[in-house]
Amino acid sequence: MNEMTVKIIVAVCYVILAPILGGLLDGIGRKISARMQRRVGPPILQPFHDLGKLLHKDPIHVAPSQNFLMMSYLFFVILTGGMIFLGMDLLMSMFILSTAVMFLYFAATVTGSPYSTIGATRELLQMVAYEPCVLLTCVGFYIVRGSFETAEIINGDISPIAYLPGIFVAFIFILTIKMRKSPFDISTSHHPNQEIVRGITSEIGAKNFAVFTLAEWYETVFLMGMVALFIVNKNPISIPVAIVVAFLVYFLELLIDNCSARMKADKMIKLSWMVTIIAAGANLLALIYIFK
Amino acid sequence: MYNITRSPWVMHYDGSSCNGCDIEVLACLTPVYDAERFGIINTGDPMQADILLVTGGINTQNAPVVKQLYDQMSDPKVVVAVGVCACTGGVFKDCYNILGGADQVIPVDVYVPGCAARPQAIIDGIVKGIGVFQERLEKMEKGELKNQEEKEEAGKEE
Amino acid sequence: MLDYAVPFLICFPFLISLFLLCSGKSKIGNSIARIGAVVIFVASVAFFVARGIQFGFGTVKELYVNTEIADYVILAGEVLLVLVVTFLCFKYKKYWISLLSIIPTAAIIIVEETAAKENIAHIFIDRLAMLMVLLVGAIGSLIIIYAVGYMEGYHNHHKEVQDRRNYFLALLFMFMGAMFGFVTCASLTWLIFFWECTSVCSFLLIGYTRSEEAVNNSFRALWMNLLGGVALVSGVIYFHNLFGTFSARGILDTIQMIGPYASQMFGITLYIPVALIAFAALTKSAQMPFSTWLLGAMVAPTPSSTLLHSATMVKAGIYILIRLAPLMQGNPVGMFVALIGAFTFLSTSFMAISQSDAKKVLAMSTISNLGLMVACAGIGTPETVWACVFLMLFHAVSKSMLFQVVGATENSLHSRDVEDFHGLLYILPKHAMFLFIGITGMFLAPFGMLISKWSALKGMTDDKHALIVMIIVFGSALTSFYWGKIMGKLIAHPHKKKEVKDVTHVGEYVSFWIHMITMVLMVVFFPVISSFYVDPTVGNVEMIGSTANIAAIPQSTLYILVGMLLLVFLIPLVMYFSGKGEESTQKLAYMGGINTGKNNGFVDSFGEEKYLWMTNYYYEKMLSVERLMKPCQFIATIIILVIACLLCGSWIGGMLG
After folding, report:
1. Which of B145, C127, C454, C556 has the fewest beta carbons closer than 10 A?
2. Are B47 and A204 within 8 A, CB to CB?
3. Chains with 3 or more CB pairs closer than 8 angstroms to B?
4. Cα–Cα distance between C495 and A113 in angstroms, integer?
5. In angstroms, what separates the C-alpha of B50 from chain C's closest C-alpha?
6. Per the domain annotation, does B93 fall within a domain?
7. How many whole angstroms separate alpha carbon C275 and alpha carbon C640?
8. Digit-coded pLDDT (tens) for C246-300
9. Is the whole-model pTM more than 0.80?
10. Which domain holds residue A101?
11. Which of these, C185, C261, C145, lies nearest to C507 by C-alpha position?
């Protein structure tokens, strides 16, 4: 029963704290990006102002089903993160994440708008690019700890990264794709680049865009959580270390975002698969045939 | 009342202009003027924009376009006309195809003069527009905005 | 009473088939077929339930030890098949193919007649057989009900094809009878007969239209499947030499008794027959390099592709592999089989991306999913076999539904190009809904494919197959891409409002609904199916190799997973209904401000309205079948040759040493 209470508390904390953390990360990110460009930049709380404004605007849609598709997307993303932070099955949560992405995809294609359809198809391509690596990451954790459950994964003697350096590198690489940061902001196209307007989010405005933003924050938090999984072990000291590493990775993503230009979709797939095969694949082979 | 003044997202529409004002609008985003410190984001998508920044005059071809973009924006919304051409038609005013300023097709809230308008003036105009933006929200939440629009439309028909 | 159920299920379809063949062109065929299908449906479901209640699901039943008359019937059947094949081969001047039929049949008859008479059970029913009976009976009969309506529309359209629909329906019934026999027989000689019977039936079905393309494709299917038959016969004769029996149970029991010493006792000699039979299974389930026959089968009317793809033909190969799985676990044969399966999974997923013909996408995805099943069976650990059985079940239901709906859509829309399915939700809403759900069943939560994939990945990792894990992971990413593409098309805003008349029969809709309900029920009763039918099959004494009665997947994990998946099912529903009352303003889609106002077009620079036309990504230059098929077949052939050389080499080495 006690364990149950703890789990419920963790779940509630996750649902409430994750967007706050995600929003802060977003704000800090924008500030850092601005400083990298020698600008003052918006205040750190800017993302929350944006979210508040979006929620207060008149809700709009292009196709009525967009509203429920976007809400489903948000809930699936929350579910995915919840599963990870509650110590449940990592591989299954990643499968649910791909279901979530499909809902975003549906919300974009259902409008029949050219820009959002292009963006949506590109989102699928991004999925093709990052999914193998995400699944291999789960498999890597499984080999190291003998379980897909995050509760087991954090309970080892040595940090998984000691066994999974290649997979870690590949995961960081596809993180850029997953977070839709430049050079892989292929499906959304960031603020100054508007050749497909806003890509998959073109027809998503006001409340629906707030939902999208929230989902992105949750996503950022559990992706950082997955980065932390590589570090955490039985030793409590590993937790602050993991947090620091997660921040460093986030900073790295910002740096890449700020100093690279958009890539073509085909090139993205080739590159990410190559990195996955070389880094993660070699790591996997070594794990299976040498260590165990 | 919720304060939405900190997050004005701008969509820039270039009418029949000489591109002078457009360059200045982009200059606002550069490190020198850094409009983002006010939370201003230049978005290309009317669905996500709060402020429509029009540069250049309105001609017969782009009039329905401006109207449609304005309609696609979610309430509350504000229109800022940047530069003389967007305000009145400017030097092109007497051309055969020019209808005049942006206010020929959509209600303009803030007029920013200049040829080309300076970045400081543009930012000033947007900040003025933010005030209107907040007022609109208050009106919208009281349910007055739609009534007012209906009245305006009724007035036009007359 | 129940002892007669199996012979009834086998003989009844054959009888109906004979009756249909005799009825010529009369209209009575339709009603006979409908009644026959309903009887088979009821009989197979009733058999499944009653067997469970009467004997308890755990009982393994062996029947029919003395079957002299039946043996003669089977013998006559074998000869008849050879005669049919030879006649047709000579008629179309493909003489050499007839040899593939004559030689193995002659060989097996000679061996059978010279061998000592043995008293073995000829029918054998365990859980896997019961599952297969249910699968074949339920889905097969639904397909026949669908086929009766479909052929009506088909012959109205295709006047150039001679109307032999009673013959077509007769073949479908014959096919089902052969499948029932195949999954329940325990005697390897009977197995060979039913195997050849399915090969010949599929050959005749593919050649139904008698067009040049159909004839060529049917002969391709024939020689590939007969080649598999040759391998099967050789494998069976080899087994007979080793163990002196034709009883599948006998062989498996012997190996189980010897247990871990089997490989020491028999060494390489045990691998050879396993490899031969596995090879036969690969041809039947259309793995690389034999995938082309299943693609060629598309020329036949839709019901036959449905039958070939979902419940019968290709699943026969998987069924054999599941039976063989314990013999393949942890040895080179299994590894190579798994490798071919995984390779097929990846390569056909690539090719599926380049297809815009809906039926071809379905065909590619069938081969690809079969590849996954073959990989699972080849690895042969309880977890992967568990995954394999579930993949088979879910795939059968979803694919049968998808094929039927695509066929019905084609009849109404006069096109089966995915590009023409743009906005199908607004043109043929019901069809779009069924297609959407069917596709969801193929790769998304909440349907069982995901749990099977989960278990497959787990099992493969446990058994240390790094390469296969890598291939599966990449293939599954591609799977989501080509399915996602189609789903996006279905729900998109239509290009042009076109009026389409829905010519789908009520019978077809009944079939769709039953499929859909089955899919949902399978998710809800997932743990039950798993613990009653699948777990004992893979973990219990019914299969050899593992004697412990353990569940492949812990029941608690399963409940959690299913719980999550049901949640996945509920969320969109809740969102849909809770969001209904919400106020939200409708806006036009963004098209640079020149939307015509109908969301399906824009105003061009001359002020004229233009329709918007959007297509999917196909990467045709890179991934076309023409470009990829040959190299992939080449690679797969090399894989097969490598294992063949390995086995031959060590066999010869063993003989010399």
Report:
1. C556
2. yes
3. A, C
4. 11
5. 15
6. yes
7. 10
8. 877 777 777 666 655 656 666 677 788 888 989 999 998 888 888 888 888 888 8
9. yes
10. 60-291
11. C145
